[in-house]
Amino acid sequence: MTPGKRGGRKAAPVVVDMNSNSSVRTLILGIDRSGRIVQHDRTAPKILACSAGNLLGVHLSDITTSDAVSTLLDAVKSDREGNAVLTVGLANGGTADAVVTAKPMQTGDSNVAAFVILQMPVPSAERFVDPAVIRDMLLRDTFAGIDDTLDFSDLAEKLMARLVPAFCTSAELLVLERIVGDNEIPDDGPDGTAALRRLSVVNDQQNLAWLAAFPIGEILRYPEASPYARCLASGQPVLEQALTADAARKLARVWRRKPVASLLSDVSMLLLPIVGKDATLGFFYCVRQAGTRRFDRYDMDMGMEFASRAAVFFDNAGRYKREHATALMLQRSMLPTGLSAPSSVEVKHRYLPGSQLVEVGGDWYESIKLPGARVALVIGDVAGHGVRAAVTMGRLRTAIQTLAMLELPPAESLQQLDELMQTIGAREPHFATCAYAVYDAVTGECELAVAGHLPPLVVHPDGRSELLEVVPSPPLGVGEGTIETKRFTVEDGSLFVLYTDGLVESRDRDITEGLDRLQSAFGPGSPEADLEDLCKTSLDGVYSDAQRDDIAVLIAKLRRIPEENRHSWTLEPEFSSVRMARSMIRDPLKRWGLEDLIPVTELLVSELVTNAIKYAKGEILLRLILESGSLACEVHDSSPALPRVLQVDRDAENGRGLHVVSQLATRWGARRTHTGKVVWCEQKLSATVIAALSAADEIAAEIDEPIPVPVP
């Protein structure tokens, strides 16, 4: 043992209870109803005080100096078990306190009325003398109760409780930091030494000096020439039969820890390496104090058998920790780091990992800003836990981002995800649930599709809340049934709450109770509350569940774009409407202070309206939307056919409209609606214009009327 750099990780000290786990000697005597010894085991005459080495006929009270014998005999006569602590005389002239149990026996014709079991501590000089006893205490049933233990602290506690006092008087366990740590400390120091962490220290006398001199959780490195470094490098045990008092004092000076001089004086030391499949993982440091039998070659072989068996469990725990850390990192990297939404929509989220009894899960969420002041709000839950669930979650999240950018309707997007899950399921059977909503901040309409997921919660501005009724659809990957769409109008200022089942389900709580609790968390006044506080409130009560699944919550406050920032016009399907459209957009652009954009915007509007008149029937809707950082122009018509950019000859007179749009606009696109399609284009505003618009909004808010902003 040697001091090293102190780490910040602390663990509860482990001490040995002498009354329950100390090295004891057990003697068995048979007595008659009067209390005289009529039978005994082979070792009893050698240990207990008796005349001429013969115990037969001796009364139980003759070998004790206690008055509790009568209590035991009364219990035997009443056919019940008796217990007492007696001071027993020993053959060497001394005494020892023994825990005595008298068990009545029904033996027929035998004169044995009861068996008396005496348990007394073994004298230090006689400890570790019988190899068979040591082996039995050390190895029998030691590993039966830890085959499912994957936590290093629990594993260390259980193993060290058997090592002391069965094999030694004191011990400590050190494991490579890279196995149990978080990769905060380099694996190898400048001189090539490995960093280790002390997981446990045990002493059979409960001497707190051991914990003071060798603190649990300390991170240290051993000098290259030390026995500890040799043990790690070679994977072989190291035996020091006697560490002299001078050597102990020298170590105390070098390590600058005074208790070491007395703790390690005249001790016997044995290092037992923990050798895993690929390398040495650490070692047990075993000490027998002065006055006990010193370690020998047989002890070394016995200890290595113990360490070899323990290595399997440390190897499994290390592999589990690495896999769990990989899954956790994979999941964290795939969750969104930022949520986007139109300026009128506020979105907050919470992700709560599962409890320690549950592996990493596959819950995920998204808020994606879409063209035309719309936002896609998505939440999903992949069935199962572990790396596979995290990978599947990442695939779905990537796919939903792509589908959102393609502007597919929610139901069609979920159908595409269902096909993806079936393809994945051909190799790795899996399924997931998902809720996908698109909110239009211009019209206030919301389009929702749900695949096997719990219904969203809508909280109205007056505080009323309701769980939306959705048509039941199978989870993604099941491949049965169709996914339908629900369309509804959302009142300005309403809350839209998406969540995963971990928020409302648990082993000891019905889902109905969980849904009621969720609704009660959004009472009157909640639409005006801070969304961060609402996220915290929604999680109240879930932290007490010891086997909690991971939880994702997405809360959006839905508001329409201010009226002064959106304009809509209905046009007849006539070419004269093109000139009318150009004239109509000039006034709002001037009021917004965007005179410089009028020529380009007129050209873009002309091309889009002309395209709608040529290929669609019925009325045409023109929308102009001023958003933070962009100006969007949309043309709605009744034709479901999406436009394509054509490759035209140099001399062709037609077919260049979308080429013009793609060159002049920052971006453009088209999407189908339930009544036809929308073709849109977007122009990005300069930073100067954005700053001017923001200043105008602040002034307008103060005087409660809009102010035109001159273009710099």
Brief account:
With 712 residues, the chain is an alpha+beta fold.
Largest sheet: 6 strands, antiparallel
Task: Note the beta-strand portion.
Answer: 25-35%
Helix content: 25-40%
Q: Structural class per helix/strand content? A: alpha+beta
As laid out across the biggest beta sheet, the strand order is 8-7-6-11-10-9
Radius of gyration: 40 Å
Tally of strands = 26
Distance between the termini: 74 Å
Identify low-pLDDT runs: 1-22, 703-712
pLDDT averaged residue by residue: 83
Number of DSSP helical runs: 19
Q: Tell me the overall shape.
A: elongated
Structure notes:
The protein is α+β, with helices and mostly antiparallel strands. Helix content is 32%, strand content 26%. It has a 6-stranded antiparallel β-sheet. Helix 12 packs antiparallel against helix 13. The N terminus and C terminus are likely disordered.
Main traits of this protein?
single chain, 712 residues, five-stranded antiparallel beta sheet, 32% helix, elongated, alpha+beta
List the helices and strands and how they pair.
Blueprint: H1 18-21, E1 24-31, E2 37-40, H2 44-47, H3 69-77, E3 82-89, E4 95-104, E5 114-121, H4 131-139, H5 152-166, E6 170-176, H6 177-180, E7 195-203, H7 208-213, E8 219-221, H8 227-234, E9 238-243, H9 245-255, H10 259-263, E10 267-275, E11 280-288, H11 297-334, E12 346-352, E13 362-370, E14 374-382, H12 387-405, H13 410-425, E15 432-440, E16 445-451, E17 457-459, E18 465-467, E19 485-489, E20 494-499, H14 511-521, H15 531-538, E21 551-558, E22 566-571, H16 576-591, H17 598-615, E23 620-627, E24 630-637, H18 657-664, E25 667-673, E26 676-684, H19 687-703
Antiparallel strand pairs: 1-2, 1-5, 3-4, 4-5, 6-7, 6-11, 7-8, 9-10, 10-11, 12-21, 13-14, 14-15, 15-16, 16-19, 17-18, 17-20, 20-21, 22-23, 23-24, 24-26, 25-26
